[in-house]
Structures are given as structure tokens and as C-alpha cells.
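Two proteins follow. First one:
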Amino acid sequence: MLNLFGQLSVARNYKRDMRNVFEKIQELEEIPGYSKHQQLVQGFINSIDEKILVRGDQLPSVNAMIKETGFARETIVKGYKELIERGIIESKNRMGYYISNTDTGQPVKIALLLYAFDSVQQTFYKAFRDALGPQIHIDVFFHHQNVELFETIINNITGKYGMYVVTPMPHPRTAEILKKLPINKFLMIDRFEAIDGDCSYVIQEFEESSYRVFVELLDTIRQFDEMVFFSRPNSDLPIEITKAFKRFVKDYKINYRINKEYLPGSVEKGKVYFMCNDMQTWILLKDCKEKGIKLGTEIGILSQDDDPVKEIICDGITTYSADFELMAQKAANFVLNHEKTQEVIPTVLKRRNSL
């Protein structure tokens, strides 16, 4: 009996609280220039600020809001959508809308899912952060090429953010996992994975751009005895780069090797080393320094992805890379303007001392 009375008390309190919320919305009718959409959003915000609504409270359904306020369905849906984008409420599939955050000063909340926090991702994040400005909150997650972790993160963030900016991973389950995100709030960055629906993306292209770079460097590569490429199975290296390398050495009859990783102390004169892992690149450069091997003449080094360190170290490492600052600016434009975008960031070869 006590449980029943307790449940009835909670129900009565909920009805009382929601009546207060509706009153907060109606109060805003007296403010000149306030649209019904603004009344709805600000009414909920005022209710949270005054502790009428607290985290975990369920909001009325769209139909219930139409009945209570007399607003059009489009107005209610638009209001709830803005509150979701600001990270104040979340939508739980088939369960309705709930208060998820009582920080009502937060205008938009972004979920950014990356591979790992390496130098390239740092460049992207800093430019993305700067382009969005301090008023936008970003929560950063990393999946490390682990599909179980990738799925867990997607499950945990879905419905809780205004925008989702995601670097996908190549896996048969990726498309199905990404279907959980609202496609109009989802931006695919860096790498492209085909999914159902016409999504927005700001990506780079790997196979044709890599092949083009190799051909552009052909005359220099031919000055060395062999081209050595380091590619570990099941790494996060795009398979398209390996395809481009194999096509290039076959088309132009280049002597080559593909090794899993660079072993410390194994540097040989007369080789062009194609490096896609920065940690292994630093080990190779250390070996060159210790053995007095001259870059650009006794060996060559080509590194995938550029960063400021590679411009300086050893008088410059030759790289090819997409412009990650430009990618970040394009991604920020999507978040700020909510406009569909589908762009491929150009790949640029930067020739320096090493090749």
C-alpha cells in the first residue's frame, strides 16, 4: 500500500511540475519578438534553472505538448531538436525525451570520435577547437581500431549530443554501427566508409593520391637500389596506400620490399624508406644519425602525413599529406551552419631534404 501511495505521489508531483513548466512557457508569450519555438526552448531552460525540472526527468511526448500548448507539431519537434543539439535533453529510442544536462548555458555539445591522439589528430583537434570557438563543448573519444570499443562508444553517445563528428574504421560492422547516429547530425571525417544514406563527410583520398605522389617522385626513387615499405597487418594504415604502392612498383618495375616494421639498427644505404608510422620514423632517423648516414643522398625517406616537426628535423623530411587544418575548418563549418557537405581534402607533396 505504501508503494502504491508512493507511486501516486510521484505521479502527482510530476503532473504538478509539468504544469509549472507549461506556465513558464506561457509566461514568455508576453515578451515581444519571442517566437513560439523560442518560448518552448526558453521555457524548458527556465524550468531547469529554477529546479522545476532536474536531470533524469522525462518530458511530455510531442503529442502531449501539442495538446497542452497549442503549438504546431513542427514547432515542438524543432524545439526538442534544439535542446538535444545543446546537450540539454536526450532522446531514448521508443522511450521519449529526458533531461540529460542541467548546464543550460551550453549552446551545442559535440561528440568527436577519433582513432587515437597522435600528432595528426592533435593538429585536427586544435584547428577544430579554434574554429568552433569557446562556446562549443567537445567531448573526445578514441576507438583505437577496436570494433567492440567503437560500437560501445557509439551506443553510449547516441542521442546525447547535438552533432557527431566521427573517424570511422574499416570493418564489416562499421556501417551497421553508424546507422544508430542521426544522419543529419553526423559528419564522417578523415576516412570514408560506405553507409546507408547520403551522409556528410570531409575526408581524404588515399589510393590515387598515393600513386600520384610516387610517380611524381619516380626520378628520385630510381636513384636508389630499392624502395622499402613498412606495413603491419591489421594496423590502422589504410589498405588503399598498400594497393597504390604495389601498383606503382609493378608499373614502374621498382625493386621493393614490404616489411612489417622497421627494426632498430637495420638501416641500409641505397634504400628509399617509405614510412607511415612516426615512432618508427624517429627510430630510423636516430640510426642514421648514429651511423653518419646522409639523408637524401645515401638513403631517402618519404613519410605519410605531415606535421611541423617533419619540416624542421634533419633539415626536413619529405612528406605527403592532406591538410588537416583545412579538414578541421570544414568540419567546424558543418557543425556551426548545419549545412550538408561532401568534400575530399586534396593531398599535397612537400619535398624536403630527405628525398
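Second one, unrelated to the first:
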Amino acid sequence: MVDFYQNGIVTTLHNLSERPIEELEQELLTFARRRPMALLLPSLFSELEGPALPNIIEQVKHVPYLSQIVIGLDRADQAQYEYALKFFDQLPQHHRILWNDGPRLQALDAELQSLGLAPKELGKGRNVWYCMGYILATGKAESIALHDCDILTYDRSLLARLIYPVANPQFNYEFCKGYYARVANGKINGRVSRLLVTPLLRALKRVVGNTEYLEYMDSFRYPLAGEFSFRRDVLNDIRIPSDWGLEIGVLSEMHRNYAHNRLCQADIAQTYDHKHQDLSMDNDQGGLSKMSIDITKALFRKLATQGNTFTTETFRSLKATYFRIALDFIETYHNDAIMNGLTLDIHHEEQAVEMFARNIMKAGQSFLDNPMETPFIPSWNRVVSAKPDVFDKLIEAVEEDHLDYRG
């Protein structure tokens, strides 16, 4: 049983009573009459053959309130796209797959590239962005949930609790961030959030001052969760990063566009586990190492837009402050683990903190060396303004792929 404490400046919606899923879904069915709902699934083809996604689809099959499911499919050739069509055909809800590597969507991407309006990097950010465009284009849903396709502990109550705050017509939330305890197989996970993001935010408060933005970011219990929901109008103006800064970037955009009382976070799962990235101690272009650099740069960029000035000396002070705070957090998490009968390897935790500290300096130097770097994908409002027929072309590409390759 969790407590009811409200921390920070963003509303927290707890799981206080373990309501039956049938009761939640019945309410959501009622809400769906006024606010039709959709699910966005950004997926790699490899996830279709993994242990998590088949169970996710088996669960989603029984969700009664969804009117649309949009799947973004990355790293798939034609045979794999045809396999995906059969794989997802078990879904009774209306659904479509965006074959991002297919010739039709590649041609549309080339048109947007020529206008300087397409994502510059492959990855989840690009996948999510095109799916958001498709949802806007079809206009079938008012409330949309997004979650990853590698959740090993998935059941459909996660989706119900995630979408409920933006689906309930009596609530005024435009955005909801999911959170949960990252505990699995007898140990505490979530190293990047625990050992980088939270201590870095606390260190930034000391070094640059406790700004309202930093207080906002520090209000989220799991800022790197890949699960969030939103109202459709959010999709028009949001500018999301195409790199590993996606989750931080989305939170920053919601801070820029909406008042705090329009945002919330919700407890969506008792247990949560998914595939784990390598720490990549010796490769800052992959794994958690690259993730930590991208996330740190995303925070620096946001603070710079608010008038904060950074120098090499600032980053040195930040690194030292972060390092001390993060080491203190390791002791906190270790004690928490012991009290709950869990394990936590102090040596591995300190190795991660040492790497993150080095990467704060790398991110800072990259920020200083590339002041014009803009990894954000343009908003769909801007794209439509420059290319008014983009939604028609997007729908046409997806529908023609669907018809041509269903077999």
C-alpha cells in the first residue's frame, strides 16, 4: 500500500485501493462516448519475436474502450512488415501499422527532409513523432496513451490507469506521466533515473539555483518512464527530441505549453520490468552511457532557454556536486533494499555514478562546442503550415501499405 503524499508541484494520482480492472474499464467505456481513446505503440520488429510484446497484445485484445491502435514499426523489411500485419491482426480494435522503413513512408520522409522538417535521427523519437502525426491526421481519438513494447510484467490495468486521467471528462488534465517501482528479480533497477536524473536535478538546484523548472522536473517520481498519456491537442505544438532525451524533452515541452494544474502523474503498476540497456562503460555512443549524455544535454538546453549561462567551470562544479549527492543516494537505496529483502550491488552502483559524472562533463563540453545543435523534431503545426497535404499523404501511405501487403 502506498501513501497519499503529494510531492513537488505536479499532482500525483496514487493507487490507494487496487480497484478491480473491470470497474475501471467500465468507467472508461462511459468516458469513451465523449473522449474516444487510442493507444500508440512504438515498436522494433525484434520486439514481435521477444517475450514481452506477444503478452502485451494478448492483454490489449481484451481492452473494450479503445477505438484506435497505432503501431509504429521500425527496422523491418517487407517480409517482416507482412509478418507484423499478421501478428497484429489478432487485435479486434481498429489498428494500423506505420511501416517506417517502407518505400511509401520513406518517400514522404524524403519530401519532409527536403523542407528541413523531418527527424534527423532514427529511433524511438522519430517513430513516435510519425505516429503522433497519423493520430492527428485520422482524428479518431481525443485521448491517447503511449507505452513501450518491451514491458515484461504488462497487464491491461497499466493501460487503464495510464489513460484514465486524460479520459475522464471531469478532469482537466492534458498530460499524465506514468510511474512505478522499478523492482524485479529481487533487486532495484532504474539506474539512470535513480543515479543520474534525480541527483543531477538536485545538483543543478545548488549550482544554478532552485528554478521553477527544476522544481517541476524534480516533482516526477519516475521522469524516464516511457509511459504517458495526453489529449489530442497536445500533439499539435509539441517539439520532441529525436535522441535519448525523449522523455525529458516531452516533460519540458509540457512545462512550456501548460500550467501545472493541467499535468499529473499516476501510479500505473505494482511491478514493472523490461529489457535492460548495457551500462556501456567504454562506449559513450551506446547503451546507458549515450542515454546519460543525451538526457544531460536536454536539461542543459532547456535551462539555457531560460537564461542560464554555462561555462566549463559551471560544469566542473556541477560534476563535483552531482558526485557527492549521487554517492549519498547509493547509501539510501542500499538501506532501502536491505529493509525490503532486496539486493543492491554498491560497487556496480558506484561504477555507474562515476561514469555518469564523466558524462556530465562530456555533455557540457558538447553543449559548449555545438551551441546551434537543435535535435528537436518540428511541431506538426509547423509541418502542416509548410506542407498542407502532409496528413493526406500520411494516411494514404499507411492505407496503401495495409492494402497491398495484407496477403
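SUMMARY FIELD: The longest strand covers residues 66-74. The first helix runs from residue 21 to 32.
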